[in-house]
Amino acid sequence: MLGGVVDDVRVNDRLTIPAAELAWRFSRSSGPGGQGVNTTDSRVELSWDLAGSALLPPMLKERAAERLGARLVQGVLTVTASEHRSQLRNREAAAARLAGLVASAIAAPPRVRRATRPSKGSVERRIAEKKRRGETKRNRRSYPD
Hints:
Elements lengths: L8 E2 L5 E2 L4 E6 L15 E7 L8 H10 L4 E2 L2 E6 L5 H20 L13 H21 L5
Antiparallel strand pairs: 1-2, 3-4, 4-6, 5-6
């Protein structure tokens, strides 16, 4: 961000989407803004052509396309922001939203969980506690004389 205007979008430490690959559209926003909402183009749409970008290596591009499949329209990822009254804050919000989406889309898959069995001692303790609890409840019962 330079002088209050969003330039490049920083996704993570190693990846920054250059401003040349971003497309901005502005329109009138519904919501807060009073009388100004009728005259100010504060709603922001930020688009990035994932499929046409040479920024990502093929493997990451494939992973991102797979994870963002429902959000992509002909390979283009679009985010909107209209929650703020000013266009500048909406531009910042849209850039942050795009960065978050791309970061989560290209993140490495989580490690596979290896199934483990509970230890013999923990099983015995659990069953002993269940028996104690049942005995406590059984002692609360009242039997007719």
